[in-house]
Amino acid sequence: MPQLIQAKTILNKTKRRDPWFLDDYTVNPYSGCSFNCLYCYIRGSKYGTHMEEKLAVKENAAALLDKALALRARKGQYGYIVLSSATDPYLQAEKTFKLTRSLLEVILKYRFPLHIITKSDLISRDIDLLEEIKCKAILPDDLKDKAPSGLLITFSFSTVNDQLAHIFEPGATPPSKRLVTLSDCLSQQFHAGVSLMPLLPYLSDTGEHLHEMMAAFRKVGARYVMPASLTLFGNNAADSKVLVMKAIAQHFPHLTEKYLRFFEHRNEMPKYYTEALNKKMKELAAMYGLPDRIIPQPA
Known about the structure:
Elements: E1 3-5, E2 11-13, E3 25-27, E4 30-31, E5 56-58, H1 61-74, E6 81-83, H2 94-97, H3 99-110, E7 114-118, H4 127-136, E8 151-157, H5 162-168, H6 175-187, E9 191-199, H7 207-220, E10 225-229, H8 240-251, H9 256-263, H10 271-288
Parallel strand pairs: 1-5, 3-6, 6-7, 7-8, 8-9, 9-10
Antiparallel strand pairs: 2-3, 4-5
Helix pairs in contact: 1-3, 3-4, 8-9
């Protein structure tokens, strides 16, 4: 059962807007995550654990956000709010607590632009509020002629294979359902796309799998696909590096030596790999007509 807590703050101002996610602010209604993705960057990083057993519900999140956005709105400090940066806003607990929905009501009240990042199909429940946010959001001055919409929806994938996803994302909505929900959002004229983060070396980064994914995203009409390689942290039992290596040893033992070579003494993939992956994804983006940013970067 999730722990109910009273948070001290809910709205976090970022130091600089990330060019991938356009985050001026971040909001996390929950702490911890029931999706239990083995590769999650939170596990073993400086941000602490990210496990279902640690799941906490910030009961006063809506009241805190109302107060914070009222102040920002009075000062004209509009900017994209990202839901969420450290945990999914549409966990299974959201069906009961409806905390994310209450935050959407506050965001709509103050007309802030919004970027939702999720692995869940539960977002379909809130189409009514999302439509209003899209129509009424006030963009920050420097993005008024650049941003495609006041509402952005990004679905996170590491693969489109349900069986592979179940190994590395055991609690998340299967990719097949995510694709259907992405398609539904696009049919509602939302600006929606894909965070292809992380790609799993020798599993979802193969040429065959990359073509399969890009074809699937193009078929549903995704507006962008943002790729990135795998990063793993920590050496404790609940850390991402240990959990992913355990999964590789159990399900893909032929890859164990390769993963050890990559991650035994580092957290990130080597430079030669990331450069080759970036080049490949640029080629695929052009081939499939899928931009690799929400706001394409100058060449």
